[in-house]
Specification:
This protein is mainly α and 338 residues long. The chain is 70% helix and 5% strand. It has three domains: 114 residues; 63 residues; 120 residues, Four Helix Bundle (Hemerythrin (Met), subunit A). A hairpin with a 2-residue loop joins strand 3 and strand 4. Helix 11 runs antiparallel to helix 13 and helix 13 packs antiparallel against helix 14.
Length: 338
């Protein structure tokens, strides 16, 4: 198998060394997707037939990889043969072993391809830096000294405190009339106030049960292999993306943007978050919503490249992804209002 990898990489590297690697990156990206599909099969046997067909489409037996005008023929027959052997195998342990071997081979091929190309980041333009600063400086992502919600909570707390004090005073006057002045300063007013409050809470709880519950914050989830904390929303993830970008982690920021989009689409009923689902399966679910599918397709490709491909990102790339993210979010909200 190493000989096969060496042949593929050598043929590509000769061309890359002379002409660059723009189309080579597309091939490497599809190798990563194929490995991702193998991992999915291992977790979900019912997905096997669909995944095998998809992998063969991703990496046909023979294909031409164009590298800035020069064409290299790549032979992926080894992968098709491995998948055919897996499908013919009847022993479950052997089937699992063949899957693991194929996944490992794909990961190794990906590593060879990435080592064969230069990943030096290009210097960023002043325009891209200013574009990013404009995004990060938006008011909705800045911490306010006291938000309108904070003021509302503070005022409500003060009103409740004054209301309870008034109730306690009223019960005290009632106790004084019934049992005398000495009883007002005893434990009876406090007990009566507590009983009234418990009855009020019980009444409110019964009322809430009759009202249709609104959307709740999601519990702890695992999305695309990453565990997301309980209570996280799409807005939380967007803020996390911008925080990562501010810290210079543009690759992590793009990942958070992509998962934020998945959360938003889930809240609007366009997709259902599934621990075993892949990014391309999510993309397929919104394919009939063209206004959402187009920017999401771009984000999916960029997410694949930077996150799974482990390539460094940049301010300019993050700013572009953020713009397409906002486009997808806006179109989703128009197509499927909450």
């Amino acid at each position: 198998m190493n000989r096969v990898f060496a042949t593929i990489v050598l043929a590509l590297a000769v061309t890359v060394s002379a002409l660059g690697a723009s189309r080579l990156l597309n091939y490497e990206n599809r190798v990563v997707r194929a490995a991702e599909q193998i991992a999915r099969i291992k977790a979900d046997r019912e997905y096997s037939n669909e995944a095998v067909s998809y992998i063969k489409e991703l990496l046909p037996k023979s294909e031409k990889v164009e590298v800035e005008g020069s064409v290299v023929t790549v032979d992926n027959t080894w992968l098709h043969d491995a998948l055919d052997r897996y499908e013919k195998e009847t022993d479950e342990a052997q089937r699992q072993a063949k899957l693991s071997e194929t996944e490992a081979s794909l990961r190794e091929l990906d590593e060879h391809l990435r080592r064969s190309q230069s990943t030096q980041a290009e210097p960023q333009s002043t325009e891209s830096r200013e574009k990013l600063r404009g995004i990060l400086g938006r008011p909705q992502f800045q911490q306010e000294q006291e938000t309108r919600l904070g003021r509302f909570v503070k005022e409500t707390r003060q009103k409740i405190t004054a209301f309870l004090a008034e109730i306690y005073s009223a019960f005290g006057r009632l106790i004084e009339r019934l049992f005398g002045a000495s009883a007002r300063n005893g434990w009876l007013p406090t007990v009566l106030v507590v009983i009234v409050l418990l009855l009020a809470v019980y009444g409110v709880a019964r009322l809430i049960r009759t009202i249709r519950p609104g959307k709740r914050r999601a519990g702890k989830r695992r999305v695309l292999g990453e565990e997301i904390a309980e209570g996280t929303t799409s807005h939380d993830l967007a803020e996390a993306a911008l925080a990562s970008a501010k810290a210079g982690d543009f690759r992590g920021g793009i990942r958070s943007l992509y998962i934020s989009l998945l959360y938003e689409l889930s809240e609007r009923g366009l997709i259902e978050l599934d621990e075993s689902a892949t990014n391309h399966e999510y993309l397929a679910k919104v394919s009939n919503v063209g206004a959402v599918a187009a920017p999401m397709r771009y984000l999916t490709d960029r997410f694949d490249y930077f996150w799974y491909g482990k390539f460094p990102s940049s301010e300019e790339e993050f700013a572009t992804c953020f713009a397409r993210y906002e486009e997808a979010i806006g179109n989703a909200r128009v197509a499927h209002p909450a």
